Amino acid sequence: MSPHPPLDLTGTWTYRLDPDGIGEAEHWASAPLADPGTLTLPSSLGAQGIGDPVTVDTPWTGGIVDQSFFTDERYAPYRQGEDVSIPFWLQPQVYYRGAAWYQRRLEIPEGWDGSGIDLMLERVHWESTVWIDGHRRGSQDSLTTAHRHDLGRLAPGMHLLTIRVDNRTVIDVGPNSHAISDHTQGNWNGIIGEIALHERPEIRLGQVRVLPDVAARRARVRIDIASGTAVAREGRLRLTARRADSLPDAAGAPVIGPIEAAFEVDHGEDLGSRGLLGGGTHLDIDLDLGADAALWDEFTPALYALEVQLSARTGDREHTDTARVLFGLREVRTKGTRILLNDRPIFVRGSLECCVFPLTGYPPTELEPWRRIMRIARAHGLNLLRMHSWCPPEAAFVAADEAGMYLQVEGPIWANQGAAVGEGRPVDAYLHEETRRILRAYGNHPSFLMMAHGNEPGGRDAEFLAAWVRLWQTQDPRRLYTTGAGWPGVPENDFDNIPQPRAHRWGEGLASRMNAQPPHTLATYDEDVASRDRPIVSHEIGQWCVHPDLEEVAQYTGLMRPRNFGVFADLLRESGMLDQAADFLHASGRLQTLAYKEDIEAALRTEGFGGFHLLGLTDFPGQGTALVGVLNPFWEEKGYVSPEEFSRFCAPTVPLALLPRRIWAAETEQEFSVRIAHYGWAALEQGEVRWSLRGDDDAVLAQGAFHDASQVPLGNSTVLGPATIPAGLVGEATHLRLVVTVLEAGERIGENDWDVWIHPDAPADETPGVRTATDPAEAAQAAARGESVLLEIPAEAIGNDISLGFTPVFWNTAWTRGQAPHTLGLLHDPAHPLFAQFPTAGATDWQWWAPLRGARPMLLDGLPREIRPTVQVIDTWFEARRLGVLFEARIGKGRILVTSLNLDGGDGADERLAARQLRRSVLAYMASPDFAPQVEVSVEELASVLR
């Protein structure tokens, strides 16, 4: 008997909410629901406007670190009744937490009589319980795979199907797990994806696993056969495979097979009491793919579609079943600290995917949305997505297979903040159940390259998760396993996914490398690599924030709304800076891009390193709003960096200039070397590496080539040079770009560039007609007499607690409890005459490192609103204060320019060059007719900036 096509159950259903959990006791499933509403499935309650208004008492799932929303007076207008704007995460228009009952009548067709029937619910959030005609058929609680309910044998005709879905916490997997938390997808109630009845053959295929053998160009197909009560002594299997990808040769590729295999089952003597399996029947069949079989990886994602047909006879009845499996010929392993795919080294260039889908509040189960995400990620040079504490639907795996995108999949667990693993709680068993389900459902996908139990665990994590790794390494060796994203790093891991090797770590503040060390491009994580005998993939690097894009609000046309952005816009408006929001976005975005570039390049410079996971390519809307992405939650650009620019420093082949400094003395020649991070398809056999030094007009001032670059192996061990840049190329302060290009057989395969600045190495002499002072009272008196005064205020004289660093905010100031820095960089007009001798582009760049070193911003709310600082500091969006490090005004008959920047630069020669050049430019401006401030301030107003 052949199974009939599935019976689709999508469409209109009735529903009834059960917030008090009384439905089972009152036997709601035994009859049509009383006073029902109607909705469409697949979907969620919230996506169809069903639920309660959001209030300050909404029972959210997810931790709230910053509790000030509930007490701070400035948030009082946003806590009123049902007109609430929460600043923690994207806010659903309605919210429901509890049980909901879904019901419909269905008709079993003629011909299904006598067959077992399964109800397929592709994704449920969270627990589903099913009744058919009032008879309870069981419950399931997977957050990661389909719920399949055995409905038994149903007679043809009409039946009443009832499903109860409960989105309250079933297992304590941690309140911030992205599988359940309101921080990201939201705690939705519903059913998405396929909803259908499947006829279940009495004798059927169970699990079909494909174990690739790259060396032999074949795959071992491991087939389990299951049955109900039917008895059969023998049967047959038929296997065929074909290329299934979009490569040019796939369409014409021959069909592989068919391969046919017969099997017999020894049932023993008691045939009547045992089914086909007895203790289980399985076959291992080798599928020869041919000597020219294509391998799967990020460059050639060759896919094979395998069809397995089963036939068996019981008496006069034929039982058939078919399974279709997508797989790729690939093997992943480690060698020392390297990750090898098909025996070639790969470097993980990953980003997190945290289940952020604002329009629906739940992940798509269709293929095209996932294809779009993979295309965008690949365009930015990434080759992996880490599914943070959740597992996506089948469509994501297929899209990743097609795109050659690697996936790190995780169980739906972030057992921290009160939850824990390894202590005998229900989550321990649940982790193993979910792991088994994930591997069974998605394990054949070649994109499924890595797996962690979940994120950043608490409890007896090391001992428990070490055993988890050992078990699943044995059960399914087709991927690499690590205990958890973040920790613990244990010897059992195939790789360690740890947070130590990154440019800015939790709690480092102004002591982090980019804040504490003058600009250079030599930093590596060599010590971290040397400390381990297995690969390191650094955990959640970056976390560099950008100012909110207020224009983004218009894109939120579905369930989730950025009411938090409304709060942030109001704070800007109150400070008189709402008109600057777009400028704040662009300037902070350029600083964010700079920081990600250095973070990524440091990882690429480290020989023997395994890779990194960005946090992230896209914004994270939860945890107090973490605007860490160069893309918004819709995977769309924000306007300050393109995929083409980003992929210059994040790609399979990236040249890396090794610069001891970024600020050069005009009178001194400079030397640099180049490391080639080359993780392409093959080693370079006809390589060329060229460099050029270019002006803002792209004119070449100097150029050269490395003559030892023709042979470049895979990896990042190749270092070329040094090359020498002569002194005296320019006679004044100049911004230049060092460009390095890698070619193979004349074709460019990688190019990267670095901003450098050349300044004269001479002190900034005092300028006639400009008085300098460090005491505000002295400066005010001199200005009142008609003088032009430069007031340099030392940081210790400023009484605010705003921490100003070179880098922007890390993650966000609310979730990190105010970790430094507190600001998002500088905004200024590069065409302002003050910068005539200090080339700048309107945002923080490396030449600002020394002037910012040790500086503190001034609070300007005591000054007239008409004063906009010449060099403005962009504040965190939670405060939106008027901040500046340089402004000008009139006092009495005179003029004053006030700065809290460091215009001396400190002890190091490299530091002094940029700071003193800025001082020189400031003094020249003040001595010119251009220095003509229009707004007058009083002595008292001037003194207000010191607090």
TrEMBL record:
Source organism, top-level taxon: Bacteria
InterPro entries (UniProt xref): Galactose-bd-like_sf, GH, GH2_Domain-Containing
UniProt cross-references to SUPFAM superfamilies, sorted A to Z: (Trans)glycosidases, Galactose-binding domain-like
GO MF terms, alphabetically ordered: hydrolase activity, hydrolyzing O-glycosyl compounds
Protein known as: Beta-galactosidase
GO BP term, example: carbohydrate metabolic process
